[in-house]
Specification:
Length: about 290
């Protein structure tokens, strides 16, 4: 029971401004009107705090006020909040290992026994390692024991460390695997080298490196008249030596590769074991570098 109550206590102490938060209390005034699933999703008491939420420092807003929750990669559990406290949800994500995204929303729940309502709401803060995106916010609810569970006021946030730079798509989470790219459709290598950074993990460094490589390649085309090989995709991850994080790698490619070729978990060198962690893949949003047969 102690563990079950801890997140709530944490949320209560993490309130940025308790008075302001008070205006978004989750109890509906349902005694005066109908209380259906349709009423729940259009209730302005849920949409208003979602629309007015301030994006917490260190995070990027992925979507606002959807009527669906995310099913992203790398589920990290959830906590129940007593108010729609985006800052508190962010603080919990930040304090957890491997939390790089969160989703906060109102979920329709059966009412308490002595209530005049037919429904109540649970405010959930769900933690993910992979990015929450509009594309994976597809869970609109379900029906359980004849009770319709629906979602309202769903906001998604992605840690700035993994948020895509302008011109790049939301990352694909590859867990503890790095891309091991095969040759392209013409039997050519798409690998363009790597860069190492020894500071706090930040995917935007790799985006800058990728875009810089592409600009350089275009400015210095091959003398044989062939098409320059430009960076359209990168894989970034934390490399660890014997379990201790060493640095951030940015591996650049001319073509986008998917999860199916993310098979490189590391290597052994002498007595030392090098491993991959927190691996994410980013594609150029307008040109994924799809191979066309020559
Ligand atoms: C339920 O409604 C009745 C009649 O309107 C009222 O007397 C009672 O206080 C209400 N109960 C709750 C828990 O709101
Ligand atoms: C994405 O690729 C296109 C086509 O190669 C290029 O013009 C554009 O600059 C790239 N975007 C970024 C952010 O590098
Ligand atoms: C990066 O920093 C870590 C710890 O400070 C150190 O052990 C490691 O050798 C450094 N890596 C590089 C490539 O400089």
């Amino acid at each position: 029971m102690l563990f079950a109550t801890l997140p709530l206590l944490f949320a209560a102490t993490a309130l940025a401004s308790p008075l302001h938060q008070h205006s978004s209390l989750y109890k509906r005034a349902c005694a005066t009107g109908p209380d259906t699933a349709a009423d729940f999703v259009k209730y302005t008491g849920y949409s208003t705090p979602a629309l007015n939420a301030v994006t917490p420092p260190g995070y990027t807003n992925a979507y606002t006020n959807l009527q669906a929750s995310s099913n992203a990669d790398g589920y990290g559990g959830f906590s129940v909040l007593s108010t729609y406290d985006v800052a508190g949800c962010a603080a919990q994500c930040t304090s957890r290992a491997n939390c790089n995204a969160f989703n906060i929303f109102y979920e329709r729940a059966p009412a308490a026994a002595n209530s005049n309502c037919t429904s109540s709401a649970t405010i959930k803060c769900v933690f993910w390692t992979g990015a929450v995106t509009p594309a994976n916010a597809k869970n609109t609810g379900s029906t359980q024991n004849n009770f319709q569970i629906v979602i309202a006021g769903s906001n998604g946030y992605v840690a700035s460390a993994i948020a895509p730079s302008a011109g790049y798509a939301m990352p694909v989470y590859l867990s503890n695997n790095a891309v091991q790219a095969p040759l392209d459709c013409n039997g050519k290598d798409t690998y363009l080298g790597f860069q190492t950074f020894n500071a706090t993990f930040d995917a935007s460094r790799c985006a800058a490196a990728c875009s810089a490589q592409a600009a350089y390649a275009l400015a210095h085309p091959p003398s044989d008249g062939s098409k320059p090989k430009t960076c359209q995709f990168f894989n970034t991850y934390v490399e660890s030596k014997n379990g201790v994080a060493q640095d951030q790698k940015c591996v650049l490619y001319s073509q986008t590769w998917g999860k199916s070729v993310a098979t490189n978990t590391g290597y052994a060198y002498g007595q030392d074991v090098y491993s991959v962690g927190m691996s994410y893949a980013y594609s150029n949003a307008t040109d994924a570098g799809v191979c066309t047969k020559a």
